[in-house]
Amino acid sequence: MPDLPFRSPKLPQAWFIRNRVAIATRVLAALCGGYFVAYACTALLTVVLPMDRINRVVTANLLSFVVWCAAAIWVFAARSAWRSWWPLLLAGAAMLGVALVFRGTGMRP
Description:
This protein is an all-alpha fold and about 110 residues long.
């Protein structure tokens, strides 16, 4: 029996394109959506934390990195791109809305 060259199964070209678009949307959601949630969390924590001003700002900024990492993990753990986008946008909008409503009555030094 002659040696036949190895032939890999051919996958349709549309599968590769769909896979690349799905990964690109998740990366975009992790970067942009994660930044939006981290910014909103920073704004909210700056208003509500019961510390003096400089400690509130530093603590909120340090915690924003944790929030951004958690958002990126969430994006790649979600089942679909839509399920990775809408919780980020909803949570970010809610936190930013609360921060903007209470910005005048926030903790003062």
